[in-house]
Each structure stands twice: as structure tokens, then as C-alpha cells.
Design goal:
The structure holds two protein chains of two kinds. Chain A is an alpha/beta fold. Chain A is built from eleven helices and 14 strands. Chain A folds into two domains: 225 residues, 3-Layer(aba) Sandwich (Rossmann fold); 61 residues, ACT-like. Chain A, domain 2 (Alpha-Beta Plaits). In chain A, α2 crosses α3. The chains are: A alpha/beta, B alpha/beta. At the A-B interface, β6, α2 and α5 of A face α2 and α9 of B.
């Protein structure tokens, strides 16, 4: 086992912001921390990184308490931080030096990532013949939010970390840059890295993560392997699109309408057998079925259900 | 302080130092300080009119009326010549200052000979020698020139006054010797305690005062820059990234020392320029160097290598102490706009320390050392301001220096540990400024 987070607790006065959080990563891969705003995701990540002292609990990395200073850890914080007035290259070299990466190697990596993330022109502004060099051109405060995020990701990756913690890595990115970031995350996974990711974007989590924990007000309301969680819910989501109106069949079978669009119905069935019976009846009555999709609930649906239920119970 | 806790401070130090030195804000403020230092004394000379220019040699003739018979004309002429004056001295006997003959000469100078002056030497009933100068009203001979001329004339007159008594060198030395008083008191036990008058001279007082002022200026400038630098790092969230690579104490140590060096570079540059300025000013006015007026022979006698090193050590410790306090001020706030509020405690500490220092300097001038001055020399808030000066003028005893250095080192180490703990605890703090009560609670955790 390489990463083990056990019974983390953090309180601010009487308020419990992280309530007994535990999870493990036995193999390289991506672990997701999900939750609403203020659920305790960032606080948990800060405790894992040792940036914030927990009231109790432990974080072990390769069997030893995790010390981000001695371990090779990369971190992309939710609130992006760069020195606004300093040169980007100077900052990246400084971050690399703190991570004990030699200057020559750091330069190589900066060049590689600058090209990969398409920010070469900001880090190495080209000299224009006959024009005076603009001292501000390579400063963080001259960059768009998305480009600052790219520089921040470079800082997180500059030491080629074994453990990479990404707090909302794709928030605020346009679709093109989202794909760019996704590509890099895929590459890091392929390199057998350990990744912890927090995100609000459920499709992203479904795309990358094998294991998840859903946090609600600091408490884990659901935890485990994403496929197994989905399986445990069964295939109870039925999406049907027909040429004729099927309302009377829905009522006849006692199905719940989760959502209805002009195009199709999203129905909740008891089990697969009920769905098959429903399909058989439509076929028998010569209803033209254009779409019949029976599937597990999406992570979004599980998330809404779990967080919603927990809030209702409270 | 564990070595592992500050590992990497040099990287923080060199990065902070380099980036600050490269910043436009530093370059602009440095240039302003340098220019201010360079032009300060010549500018003062221009304003007060004591500039050499052509005016120094405007006076062609000086009529000397010496009613006392003290002035040795030949020696005076030589003294003026040595100082670069070619004015001819002409002895004149008016029988009385303001007599008809005197007024006639004054009128003649005013109308026909604007480059000539009259010098009258008198002794009045209040027991004061007076050297009076009369010049033309058309302004050809400037008052600055008269001041310079008068400085040389009166200095030579002082010597001639003593020579007129026909004293031996031994007798002269006796007269020139300073007078110190000592009071003895007898305790009930019968023990006789001699209270030596160890009050300081005016020059020594001004040295103390100047050092207190310079150290206060460095503390204030460095403090403000350190606090701002720490708050900026917190508010820009860079610190979250830094903490995955380095411990809080290393960040604090690196930043505090770097910003301190930045301010020392600024002040050092300004002081060097002040010395250059003094040289320029002295050459311009032809008078005595301003710095030389305060650096008397007595003072220079105390300037041993040991004293200078101890003085520098004490200044360094004091600056680190106050810089760490400023670091604490920066650590207690999370937004740049709150930095001023966070600096309140620091500013109060600097004010208390500096004013106690000034108070003790005044006490030393008025009556010598006592329990208050000893306390001020040892108290950590005030010793950084007053002890360096006291060492230079020989007013600090060895045990005081030793105790003060030990106190400062212990306090700095404790303060660094405390500040880094506060910094660590408040790194992701986004609320209002943290109060003293909460800080004390944090230190107990």
C-alpha cells in the first residue's frame, strides 16, 4: 500500500470540517474526492500535504508519515498562486530549486512543459528586432487565468512527482485547454503515478478515477470503487424514445418518470427484468422504439442522491 | 532551532533578494535615497549660503581693530593664508568701536571698497570676547564668506588668546583639560561609594542620537517591507505551493534576512552617499567637514576594532529581532490591505524602543549612567537602538554587552520559532487580523 489516509479529523471550534476521513491507494491511479462547496475537500488535501495540522489521524506514504518536503509531491492548489510581478521563468526555476531539481534539468523540463502546454511565448518571450524588450511580458499578472493555471500545473509537475494532488484542476478552463489538461493527466496516469483529484465536474471524475469518496460537510457519505458503486445501484435508469406517446404504458407498469424532454423519457425501473417486460409490451403493441437504453446511474445522479439525502436527514 | 526546519532558507533568501533588487520599486527608491544622500549637504550649503565659489576670495583687505592688544597680526595673516585666504590684514586703531573714524571707514567701504571688511575684537562686561565683522551693504561679500572667514579668524584668536598669557605648554594642557566631578557617599555600613561623573559630551550625545535614528529608520523600512512581502505571499497563495517544498521556518528566515539585506543596501548606499556628500560640501564651502565636527578625537579613541565589531554585531542582532517582529506582524494578516493594521504592534515596539533610547541618551548627557540607562541598555526593545552607540562612545560595560547579546540571541531564536508556528497556523487563514490573545494561545499549542 502506498498511500493511506486514516481517520483525519479537523475542527474549527465546534465545527467539524473533516470528520474521520479515511481512504487508501494501494496501486497507482487516481483517487477522487468529491463534495459540494465547503464539504472539506481542500481542507482534507491540505491536511494530507501537512500544510494544515489535523486534530487527529494520520497520512502514510510508503508506510511512513507523509512529509511533502522530503517526498516528491506535486500540488496544484484550487486557488492559483503565482508571484504576480516576478518573471515566470524565475519563479519556475525557484520552485524547481526548492524541489531540489538541478538548474539544467529544470530548464529542460520547463522547455518541455512550456511547449506541451503552449505557453512558450510567455515564458520565453521572443525578442522582436528593433523593439525594446517588454519587461512585463513574462510576468504572471500579464497572463490570462487559464495560462496562469498552466504555469501552476508546470510548477506542480516540474519535479516529476510520484504523488500528484490536483485540487479542481479543470475549473475555469476553456474546452480546448480542458482537453490539454486531460491529456496531461492521462499521461501522468500512464506513468504509474498516484493522483488525488478533487473536482465538481463529475464526467471528469468518471473519466479518470477508479476510486472515490463523496464528502458532505466533512463526512464521507459514500466511498469505494466507482464501478462497484455503480453496479450496486443496478441498471435502473431507462432512457426511451418512441414515435408514439407511451404515457399509458408508463402508468401501466408503474414506472417513475425521472425526467422528460420533448425527445425522450428518463424512467426509473425496479430492475432489468421490469425493463425487459416494458420493452416487450411496447414491441407487442407495435410501438416504434427509436431508443431503449438501460444503464447504471451516473456519478452525477449518485452524488446528488447521496448529498441530497444526507442533507435531508440532517 | 533544528537544522532540518530551516533547510532551504538560502534558496528563499537568494530568490527574495534577487527579485526584490530587480524590482522597479526597489530601483526607484534606491535611486531616490542615493540622490537624497548625495545632494543633502551641498544643498544645505547652498541654502545657508556657505558656498566657497569665487566668494571665498572676494575679500581683499580686512581692517582689524583690536582694542585688547591680543591679535598677533602676522600669525593671523599666516593662519588665513594657510586656509587659502589672500586678504591683506591691516591693523587699525579707532580708539573706540563705533567712533567717528570707524564710521567713516565703514562708509568708505560701503561706497568705494565693497571687497574690504572691518574686524573688531572686543571684550564686554558680561565676560564675552566678541569678534564683529562689518561688510559693504552692496552684497559683494556674502554672509557665507564672512562665516568662513570668521571661523578661521576666531579659531586662531582662541590660540592667540592663550598665547597672550605667556603660558608654558604644561599650563596650557592644564587649562585645556576637561573637568570631571566625583561624589562620594558613605553608607550606613561605613563603606564609601564613589559616584563618578560619567556623563557624556555633546558630540557623544549626537553620535548616540544619530545611531538611534538610523537604526530606527532601518527597522521601520525593513519591517514594512518584510511584513508586506509575507502578506503578499500569503494573499497570492504562492505560499501553499512553497509549503510542499519547504518548511515555514525556512520561509520566514529566508524572507526576513533577504528583506533586511535589501534595506541595508538602501541605507548603506545612502550613508556612503552622505559621506561623499560631506566631502563635496566641505570642498564647496571651504569650511570644516560636518562629520568631523562630531567625530572628535575623544570619540575616535574608542573606535577600536573590537568596539566596532561589537557595535555591528549588536546592530545586526537588533535588526534581526525587529525584522522577526515584523514577520510576526505579516503572519497575522491574510490580506495586503490589512498589513498596516498588522504592523501596529511592531510600530509601537519600535517607538517604545527608540524613545527609551533617546531618553537614555539624554540621561547620559545630563547626569551620566544610572539604573534607568542600564535598564535601557539591557531591555530587548531598546538595546538594539542605544547599545551600538553606547559601545562606540565607551559607555557600555563589558558585562552589559555580554548580557544584552545573550538576551537578544535567546529572544531571536524563541521569536523565530514562535513566528513560524503562527505563520504555519495562519497560512490558510482568511479572516481578520489575529489578536495578541489568540497569538499567545497558539504559542501554547
Amino acid at each position: 500500500m502506498s498511500l493511506s489516509v486514516s481517520n483525519l479529523v479537523k475542527k474549527y471550534g465546534d465545527k467539524v470540517v473533516v470528520d474521520n476521513l479515511s481512504f487508501e491507494m494501494k496501486e497507482p491511479g487516481v483517487y477522487a474526492l468529491l463534495g459540494t462547496n465547503g464539504a472539506g475537500k481542500t481542507t482534507s488535501l491540505r491536511i494530507i500535504l501537512g500544510m494544515l495540522a489535523g486534530d487527529s489521524g494520520s497520512v502514510l506514504w510508503k508506510g511512513q508519515p507523509l512529509d511533502p518536503v522530503s517526498a516528491n509531491v506535486g500540488y496544484l492548489a484550487e486557488e492559483r498562486g503565482l508571484y504576480p510581478k516576478y518573471s515566470l521563468l524565475d519563479q519556475l526555476l525557484y520552485f524547481a530549486k526548492l524541489k531540489k531539481v538541478g538548474k539544467a534539468e529544470a530548464m529542460e523540463r520547463i522547455k518541455y512543459w512550456a511547449k506541451r502546454l503552449e505557453v512558450e511565448e510567455y515564458i520565453f518571450p521572443p525578442a522582436v528586432k528593433g523593439k525594446k524588450k517588454n519587461a512585463k511580458a513574462n510576468r504572471a499578472d500579464q497572463l490570462s487565468k487559464g495560462n496562469q493555471q498552466k504555469i501552476q500545473l508546470m510548477a506542480a509537475l516540474i519535479s516529476d512527482p510520484e504523488l500528484l494532488i490536483l485540487d479542481e484542476p479543470l475549473s475555469g478552463l476553456d474546452p480546448v485547454n480542458t482537453d490539454l489538461f486531460k491529456g496531461i493527466i492521462r499521461e501522468e496516469i500512464a506513468k504509474n503515478k498516484y493522483l488525488i483529484m478533487s473536482s465538481h465536474q463529475m464526467p471528469v471524475i468518471e473519466e479518470f478515477c477508479s476510486d472515490i469518496t463523496i464528502l458532505n460537510r466533512g463526512k464521507a457519505v459514500l466511498k469505494g470503487n466507482l464501478n462497484e458503486i455503480k453496479k450496486s445501484y443496478g441498471r435502473v435508469n431507462l432512457f426511451v424514445k418512441c414515435e408514439q406517446d407511451i404515457e399509458k404504458y408508463i402508468a401501466q407498469f408503474g414506472l417513475t418518470v425521472a425526467n422528460r424532454t420533448p425527445e425522450e423519457y428518463h424512467l426509473k425501473v425496479r430492475d432489468e427484468a421490469q425493463a425487459m417486460e416494458f420493452l416487450a409490451k411496447l414491441m407487442q403493441d407495435q410501438i416504434t422504439v427509436i431508443k431503449f437504453e438501460l444503464r447504471e446511474p451516473s456519478l452525477h445522479e449518485i452524488f446528488v442522491e447521496k448529498v441530497g439525502n444526507a442533507n435531508e436527514e440532517e | 532551532m533544528k537544522r532540518s526546519k530551516i533547510a532551504g532558507w538560502k534558496d528563499v533568501y537568494s530568490f527574495t533578494l534577487t527579485q526584490t533588487l530587480k524590482s522597479r520599486a526597489f530601483i526607484v527608491s534606491f535611486v531616490i535615497l542615493i540622490v537624497l544622500g548625495l545632494v543633502s549637504m551641498p544643498l544645505m550649503n547652498l541654502i545657508t549660503g556657505s558656498v566657497k565659489e569665487e566668494a571665498k576670495y572676494t575679500i581683499t583687505k580686512a581692517y582689524v581693530y583690536d582694542g585688547l592688544g591680543i591679535v598677533d597680526e602676522a600669525a593671523m595673516q599666516q593662519a588665513l593664508k594657510d586656509a587659502g585666504w589672500n586678504a591683506e590684514l591691516v591693523e587699525k586703531d579707532f580708539a573706540e568701536y563705533g567712533s567717528e573714524a570707524y564710521e567713516t571707514l565703514v562708509a568708505e567701504i560701503d561706497e568705494k571698497c565693497p571687497e574690504e571688511i572691518i574686524v573688531s575684537v572686543q571684550y564686554d562686561e558680561t565676560g564675552i570676547y566678541r569678534v564683529l565683522f562689518e561688510r559693504s551693504g552692496n552684497g559683494k561679500v556674502k554672509s557665507g564668506e564672512i562665516n568662513n572667514f570668521g571661523a578661521i579668524f576666531t579659531a586662531e584668536f582662541e590660540e592667540q588668546k592663550k598665547n597672550a598669557l605667556n603660558l608654558t605648554e604644561e599650563q596650557k594642557a592644564l587649562i585645556e583639560a576637561t573637568v570631571a566631578t566625583a561624589v562620594s557617599r558613605v553608607e550606613l555600613s561605613g563603606e564609601v561609594i564613589v559616584e563618578i561623573d560619567d556623563s557624556i559630551s555633546d558630540s557623544e550625545y549626537w553620535i548616540l542620537y544619530a545611531l538611534i535614528f538610523i537604526i530606527m529608520m532601518i527597522c521601520t523600512m525593513a519591517g514594512s517591507q518584510i511584513a508586506t512581502s509575507i502578506v503578499t505571499e500569503k494573499s497570492s497563495k504562492v505560499v501553499e505551493y512553497l509549503l510542499t517544498s519547504i518548511r515555514p521556518m525556512a520561509i520566514i528566515v529566508g524572507k526576513v534576512l533577504a528583506m533586511l539585506c535589501v534595506v541595508l543596501a538602501q541605507i548603506g548606499g545612502m550613508l556612503i552617499m552622505l559621506v561623499v556628500s560631506n566631502i563635496i560640501s566641505t570642498n564647496m564651502s571651504g569650511g570644516e567637514s560636518v562629520l568631523k565636527q562630531y567625530l572628535t578625537a575623544d570619540l575616535l579613541n574608542n573606535l577600536t576594532v573590537g568596539n566596532v565589531l561589537l557595535c555591528l554585531l549588536m546592530i545586526a542582532l537588533g535588526l534581526v529581532f525587529y525584522a522577526t517582529l515584523a514577520g510576526l506582524a505579516g503572519a497575522t494578516v491574510s490580506k495586503l490591505e490589512e498589513a498596516g493594521e498588522g504592523m501596529m504592534l511592531f510600530t509601537v515596539a519600535v517607538m517604545i524602543g527608540a524613545y527609551m533610547g533617546i531618553g537614555s541618551a539624554a540621561t547620559l548627557l545630563a547626569g551620566g549612567s544610572n539604573a534607568f540607562t542600564t535598564f535601557v541598555l539591557l531591555f530587548p526593545l531598546s538595546s538594539p537602538f542605544v547599545l551600538p552607540g553606547a559601545i562606540l562612545i565607551g559607555e557600555a560595560q563589558a558585562w552589559m554587552i555580554a548580557v544584552s547579546i545573550v538576551i537578544m540571541i535567546v529572544l531571536i531564536l524563541a521569536l523565530f520559532a514562535f513566528v513560524s508556528r503562527v505563520y504555519e497556523a495562519l497560512i490558510v487563514h482568511n479572516g481578520n487580523k489575529v489578536g495578541i490573545k489568540q497569538l499567545i494561545q497558539m504559542s501554547k499549542k
